[in-house]
């Protein structure tokens, strides 16, 4: 078995509330898998079960060949975990914190390299409590990768980043991918999933409603281009696999240039919004 | 890295972060020193009895053992209970739980932090008492030996009980409000601020259940003149009692830690 993460019919109940209602997926070695979904859909519950923080109510889960509910220190040494943002007091400098955490791992990365990778060279002797939100988040990421993890969990890693910081972060993650790190990412940002993810799963209401390669999510149907135009003040909209032919015929039949003409190819964001708007329609 | 090496690395880290936190430095580290200074100055005209040679015992000498005992409770129990409750709630423990840091190394770090800061605190109290308030310190090596075991056993027990109590506050914000009253009440009923045998017998009996009364009795046996032994309950320092009571609390604390400590509140 080559799957780094394998999840079968995973369920989680809090009292009467069913946070997860049977989720299944696999993540292969070296793959980046993005878990998408609205707030409260079950993304964090899933990731925290796989990190060993929460117990599952039912189903099977294997992470690096181990049941995450029973993972020991050797198992944890192979993981990198970037939690959703935390509020630690941060009375240590960036460098002190990284050097300290590096010592926990059998095969840590070089502290200087990691500081450079997250772009905090200038701030390495600054206490974490004095950093901005985005800079603290980079420290979180640095701590996640300091142990040279085989599997990296990123739970909404770029929340609070400015656009430039987000791009730098993507470069960092792409570098980790090239080095063969397997990554499980949850995010609200569809462009982030599109940039980084090889495959994605969409969770809504505790169910996995779609899974597949990023460019296949939602199925071919959802990607059919939409042609919009206006005649006599009425807006028309038609989905077609041959938008060129449609536009040509509109041009030929009508009196020249159609008004307000546009041809739209649905992006990941449109497809995603369609998906979560009608979760019962799929799978 | 093995558990012990990591433990020592944690001690360094914990001590450094302790001293960078202004409120913990004041309310746990310097507090007994502040109180000793206040008592010594406020009651500077008063005599607290005479030793066998008829030399008057000053407020500073009288309160020194009490403040050292209070320091044991603050550096151990109060510090640990609030510190760990905060770390539970701010995500520090959750982060550590996701790393291969052994729990034992974490606890070596915590106990080590308490030992280092507790020793520094006691040294500072002794220094100020000696230099600023001319308190005569014992010359008999046996007294210092007694001090060593009372201190080490006391501070460890206090730290372990603090770790056990850290699960009591439901959040970091409420930690101070939950822990400080416990610590304060214990100090008032255990002979730290008020002379123990002047309390009603029933209150003495209540206090004798808790460890602070025994810490304070142990430190008094070291720093007060030997004729003060007659002022103790049963007119005896009762060091055997100190040893037994503290050891029992140490075991209780260890068991409670083992049963209650979790890196995180799972499924909260």
What is the molecular shape of chain A?
Answer: globular
Give the N-terminus to C-terminus distance of chain A in angstroms. Answer: 26 Å
Beta-strand level of the residues of chain A, as a percent range?
Answer: 25-35%
Instruction: Give the oligomer, counting copies of the same chain as homo and different chains as hetero.
Output: heterodimer
Provide an overview of this structure.
- The complex is a heterodimer of chains A (283) and B (268).
- Chain A has two domains: 3-216, Rossmann fold (3-Layer(aba) Sandwich), CATH 3.40.50.300; 224-265.
- In chain A, the strands form three sheets. Chain A has a six-stranded mixed sheet with strand order 5-6-7-3-8-9, with helices on both faces. A three-stranded antiparallel sheet of chain A has the order 2-1-4, covered by helices on one side.
- Chain A starts with a strand and ends in a 6-residue tail after the last helix.
- Chain A has ten helices and twelve strands.
- In chain A, strand 6, helix 6 and strand 7 form a beta-alpha-beta unit.
- Chain A is α/β, with parallel strands linked by helices.
- Chain B is an all-alpha fold.
- Chain B has one domain (3-260).
- Helices cover 72% and strands 0% of the residues of chain B.
- Chain B has ten helices and no strands.
- Chain B has helices at 3-19, 22-42, 59-90, 92-97, 103-131, 141-165, 172-189, 201-209, 211-223, 239-260.
- In chain B, helix 1 (3-19) crosses helix 5 and helix 3 (59-90) packs antiparallel against helix 7 (172-189).
- The model of chain B has no long low-confidence stretch (mean pLDDT 92).
- Chain A binds chain B through residues 14, 51-55, 73-74, 76-77, 79, 81, 83, 86-89, 91-92, 96, 100-101, 103-106, 127, 143, 147, and chain B through 1, 6, 9, 13, 16-17, 20-21, 86-87, 90-92, 94-95, 97-102, 264, 266-267.
């Amino acid at each position: 078995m080559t799957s780094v993460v394998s999840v079968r019919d995973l369920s989680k109940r809090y009292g009467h509330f069913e946070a997860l209602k049977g989720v299944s997926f696999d993540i292969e070695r070296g793959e980046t898998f993005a878990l998408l979904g609205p707030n409260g859909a079950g993304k964090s519950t899933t990731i925290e079960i796989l990190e060993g923080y929460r117990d599952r109510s039912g189903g099977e889960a294997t992470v690096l060949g181990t049941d995450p509910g029973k993972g020991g220190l050797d198992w944890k040494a192979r993981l990198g975990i970037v939690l959703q943002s935390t509020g630690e007091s941060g009375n240590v400098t960036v460098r002190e914190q990284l050097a300290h955490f590096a010592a926990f791992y059998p095969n840590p990365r070089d502290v200087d390299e990691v500081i450079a990778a997250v772009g905090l060279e200038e701030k390495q002797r600054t206490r974490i409590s004095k950093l901005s939100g985005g800079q603290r988040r980079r420290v979180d990421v640095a701590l996640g990768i300091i142990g040279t993890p085989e599997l990296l969990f990123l739970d909404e890693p770029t929340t609070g980043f400015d656009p430039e910081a987000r791009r730098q972060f993507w470069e960092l993650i792409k570098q980790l991918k090239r080095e063969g790190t397997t990554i499980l990412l949850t995010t609200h940002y569809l462009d982030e999933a599109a940039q980084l993810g090889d495959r994605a799963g969409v969770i809504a209401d505790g169910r996995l409603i779609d899974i597949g390669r990023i460019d296949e999510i939602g199925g071919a149907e959802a990607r059919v281009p939409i042609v919009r135009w206006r005649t006599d003040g009425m807006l028309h909209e038609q989905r077609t696999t041959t938008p060129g032919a449609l536009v040509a015929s509109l041009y030929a039949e009508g009196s020249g240039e159609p008004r307000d003409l546009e041809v739209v190819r649905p992006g990941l964001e449109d497809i995603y919004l369609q998906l979560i708007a009608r979760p019962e329609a799929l799978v | 890295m093995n558990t012990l090496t990591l433990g020592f690395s944690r001690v360094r880290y914990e001590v450094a972060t302790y001293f960078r936190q202004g409120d913990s430095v004041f309310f746990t580290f310097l507090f007994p020193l502040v109180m000793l200074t206040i008592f010594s100055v406020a009651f500077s005209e008063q005599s607290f009895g005479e030793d066998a040679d008829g030399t008057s015992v000053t407020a500073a000498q009288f309160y020194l053992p009490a403040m050292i005992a209070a320091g044991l409770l603050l550096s151990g129990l109060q510090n640990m209970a609030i510190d760990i409750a905060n770390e539970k709630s701010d995500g520090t423990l959750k982060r550590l739980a996701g790393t291969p840091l052994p729990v034992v190394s974490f606890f070596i770090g915590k106990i080590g932090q308490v030992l280092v800061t507790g020793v520094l605190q006691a040294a500072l109290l002794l220094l100020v008492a000696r230099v600023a308030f001319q308190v005569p310190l014992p010359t008999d090596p046996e007294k210092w030996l007694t001090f060593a075991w009372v201190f080490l056993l006391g501070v460890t027990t206090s730290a372990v009980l603090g770790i056990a109590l850290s699960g009591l506050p439901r959040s970091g914000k409420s930690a101070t409000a939950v822990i400080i009253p416990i610590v304060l009440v214990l100090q008032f009923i255990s002979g730290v601020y008020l002379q123990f045998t002047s309390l009603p017998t029933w209150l003495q009996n209540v206090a004798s259940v808790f460890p602070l009364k025994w810490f304070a009795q142990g430190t008094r046996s070291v720093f007060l003149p030997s004729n003060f032994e007659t002022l103790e309950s049963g007119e005896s320092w009762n060091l055997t009692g100190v040893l037994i009571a503290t050891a029992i609390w140490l075991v209780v604390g260890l068991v409670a830690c083992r049963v209650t400590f979790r890196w995180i509140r799972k499924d909260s």
